[in-house]
Amino acid sequence: MISKNNCKYIFVVGGVISGVGKGITTSSIGLILKNRGLRVTALKIDPYINVDAGTMNPTEHGEVFVLKDGDETDQDMGNYERFLEIDLTRINYMTTGRVYQTVINQERNLEYKGKCVEVVPHIPMEVIKRIKEAGIVANAEVVIIEIGGTIGEYQNMLFLEAARMMKLESPKDVSFVMVSYLPTPGKVGEMKTKPTQHAVRVLNGSGIQPDILIARGETKLDEKRKEKLSLFCNMPPDRVVSAPDVDSVYDIPINFESENLSSKLCDILGMVCQKPDSKRWSKWKSFAKHAHNGKETINIAIVGKYFETGDFVLSDSYLSVIEAIKYSSYAQNKKPIISWLNAVDFEKSPELVKTLKKYDGIIVPGGFGSRGVEGKLKVVEYARKNKIPYFGLCYGMQMMVIEYARNVLGMTDANTREVNPKSKNIVIDVMESQKDIIDKKSYGGTMRLGEYKANLREGSLARSAYGSKEVIERHRHRYEVSSDYIEKIEKAGLVFSGKSPDGTLMEIAELPKSVHPFFLGTQFHPEFLARPLSPHPLFTAFMKACIKSK
Ligand code: GLN
User: Fold this and answer.
1) Is residue 3 a part of any domain in this protein?
2) What was the pLDDT predicted at 310?
């Protein structure tokens, strides 16, 4: 039924609560296996109907992570790329919507040869096809598949069914890791195993027995509870791995290896692997140490709007930005302290900008729509006039251009068409290629997405940061600097130091160093390319400017 290849598959599922750490577990397992000389790739399954994450508000689902081929995916894909130091493509990401869409298209094309197409087995079979293809494309020896959601939900059942079918077909090649949560209720004061026992039984109901249980909790799992879980979850005690809360996610692979997880997985799957690569491993360890060291702190403000969820504040919407800041700070032996500032607050009380004085640097990240825009513009103006290092990412670069047009060129109503189509000075306009798309309201997956090249201007900040003439970066936008204003703006002193190879799209804007220590924005999203062991050059240049002007 399903063709064989020589790949091993590790499914990662979650029990008891959402947000239990499946993504970091998947990434960490990938890292420790890669460190044993295995070729690894990872794949994320999101059980929702959305075809991709691009149409969701970040407060719903966290950051939209853009792959090099332009797929708009879940933030976990960013974790996989960062931990594994690999580039993934759309075959590494699947949603219920995407799978159904393919099956329905195949049915319309008569590819099922007149058969009745059914939810089972045809949906799981498409899932399996995609998982195997991801392995083949990456020439991987191990594919790690994270199944989103929590065990017991209706939504991920068909994916578990696919996993069960794969195990049935090839028992020695498929294994299951369950990440589960062990609460320690305040009043009780004792770590409780029962919810996890139940979760494993529910998973058993899908015909699946976990091989490894990752026991997440506030504290380390003790021997007594390890034995209890072993007995009631039907696995040897050494297959229960303690995973207490840590300050930095980069410690997790190190903790896993202190419990010999890579060796356990190799045993379970009968994989022959090398001894851990000590050079790579010590590099990772010394990087991870920085999260705890860094004597001197650097204060960075991120001014955005995707923070609130009910009464809670979420930083997930800007995960890659935060990580990029960390890597470039750690590399300078500094510890970043990040503050979340709501752009809307600066709209309500403009005098608040004065509080920005205490920050060593300001970032305005990507965004959409009009809410908070006037607040962001106030922040950009303050950073420019007071020479506070400023880094604008996508919308943050567009804000720079609007602010400059308003306050330096005197075009008081300058704006982006996205916010005010009636403005007389639309300095940020819709891209030509986007007009038809917006008219037809065909919003899903249609922005200017993924990798594009940019040429860098000689003598610019950008060029000296990158140390190269051209760069390839990932994009996600519909609007651009209007060609009607480029000359006027440049004449007034703002430099477009990065342009598309045909010279039509402005990719980077900056002020010369003689005017401002660091005032730079990118139409692309450099944060998607920052990796722990290779920080992004622009973030590094920004952090260096922050340190200098501290
Ligand atoms: N809303 C802006 C655009 O579509 C910026 C997008 C972004 O920040 N990712 O061009």
Assistant:
1) no
2) 58
